[in-house]
Amino acid sequence: MFLSVFDVFKIGVGPSSSHTMGPMSAANRFLALILSNEWPRPSSGAQVVAITVSLHGSLAHTGIGHGTGRAVILGLMGEAPDSVDPDKMDGIVDTVERTGRITPEGHPGYQFQPKTDLIFDKKQPLPGHANGMIFSAFDRDGRLLVKRIYYSVGGGFVVTDTELEQMRAKKNAAGGTRVPYPFATARQMLDMAERSGLSIAQMKRANEESQRSPEELDQGLDRIWEAMRSCIERGLKVEGIMPGGLNVKRRARRIHDKLEEEWRSNRVNPLLANDWLSVYAMAVNEENAAGGRVVTAPTNGAAGVIPATIRYYEHFHEDWDQNGIRDYLLTAAAIGGIIKHNASISGAEVGCQGEVGSAAAMAAAGLAAVMGGTPEQIENAAEIALEHHLGMTCDPVAGLVQVPCIERNALGAVKAVTAASLAVKGDGQHFVPLDACIETMRQTGNDMSEKYKETSTGGLAVNVVEC
């Protein structure tokens, strides 16, 4: 089993990897399909002149709050999550809404009126996954020419219905990308580390370098951290009200300014490290909620946990260096890959335990690694962090990634640091293996009511409004 660090960490835009980045990427794929020879062309020579899109399941229920409709429009205009300019998105969407046409580069242009051709279907979920989409293309007489079902399965990953079936069929089968250390479970990872004498980061690096050069790997890792760090810095500078209608104020800058004042005055603050962790995480997730540039880590809803703990490493560990940050990211990606392979990182599939819980486990593992932890201590750190997120629901108020999501990232970062500290002070021996914890998360997600899995039909999303 191999999932690249660049699949786990992807640069994109907010507010959601599965509800924003995924649908945008699905639209990109559908545009490419139209120009390809992968569908039967009609003998009449009819051409695509119009496109419609329907959103299902969680995408339909919380798509407005997550900006899913905007993401589809941007994707159909040829914009991609990692390259779209956040400052130009509103103008692009306004043009499509005004003209009723999409004009992606390399295409002749198609009819697409968002008010009628973009459907939020809350009644008809699709069978493969909670985040389902149907893209359809028609000729000038309204005849269907090509249709594809896509699923946004978390972390910005998008697959067709056929690909999803193939993924599930191959999940426990041999094969796939050949790498030196093909661990699919934490147990396998520890066994390989013991036999090889390598750290988790070193094994992950060897796997990555079987696919790319060391220089490309390091440049990519540095680019990921730079994007994370830039997101923190932007979030610490901006004030105001976040979009969406809840009138939630940004708080990161105000808290940051107070912490800076305490820092300069040398006032004693026993919660100093926690306060800095929290403000770093909140800065990222306020940027995410505003649709800014973020890194999925492993999702957008949980994008603040890992950057916050890396920035904490820079801030409070005198021996930090760039190689340490690279090792952190590689270790975190190894844990994230195991979680995704054996459970899920999708809030629509298993609740927020799969998002903030997974992020906290990855962050704890990465931090334990740079603190000198052994593979056993690193695995223990990940387990501690994940265990204490089990059962966490995904219940965003008004479908916006604001309440309670922003504060959950702050607490997830605090838990990650605590878990890493506990683990490296131990000997790596512990009662609950990480694999058992991941399986418990999967089972808990399967048993969880759909109203607590990113549909905003239960939990805080309902009770806050009623209050």
Automatic annotation (TrEMBL):
Recorded hits in InterPro entries, A to Z, give: ASB_dom_sf, Fe-S_L-Ser, Fe-S_L-Ser_mono, Ser_deHydtase-like_asu, Ser_deHydtase_bsu
Give an example GO molecular function. 4 iron, 4 sulfur cluster binding
Q: Provide a GO biological process annotation.
A: gluconeogenesis
Instruction: Kindly list the cofactors needed.
Output: [4Fe-4S] cluster
On the tree of life, the source organism's domain of life is: Bacteria
Q: Which reaction does it catalyse?
A: L-serine = pyruvate + NH4(+)
| Cytoplasm listed as a keyword | no
Q: Does the entry feature the keyword Metal-binding, yes or no?
A: yes
Q: Where is the Serine dehydratase-like alpha subunit domain?
A: 196-461
Q: What is its EC number?
A: 4.3.1.17
Q: Which Pfam families match?
A: SDH_alpha, SDH_beta
Q: Which SUPFAM superfamilies match?
A: Serine metabolism enzymes domain
Q: Serine dehydratase beta chain domain: which residues? A: 4-162
Q: Which key words tag this protein in UniProt? A: 4Fe-4S, Gluconeogenesis, Iron, Iron-sulfur, Lyase, Metal-binding
Pathways involved:
Carbohydrate biosynthesis; gluconeogenesis
Q: Which family does it belong to?
A: Belongs to the iron-sulfur dependent L-serine dehydratase family.
Task: Note the NCBIfam families from the entry.
Answer: sda_mono (TIGR00720)
Full protein name: L-serine dehydratase
Q: What is the lineage of its organism?
A: Bacteria, Pseudomonadati, Pseudomonadota, Alphaproteobacteria, Hyphomicrobiales
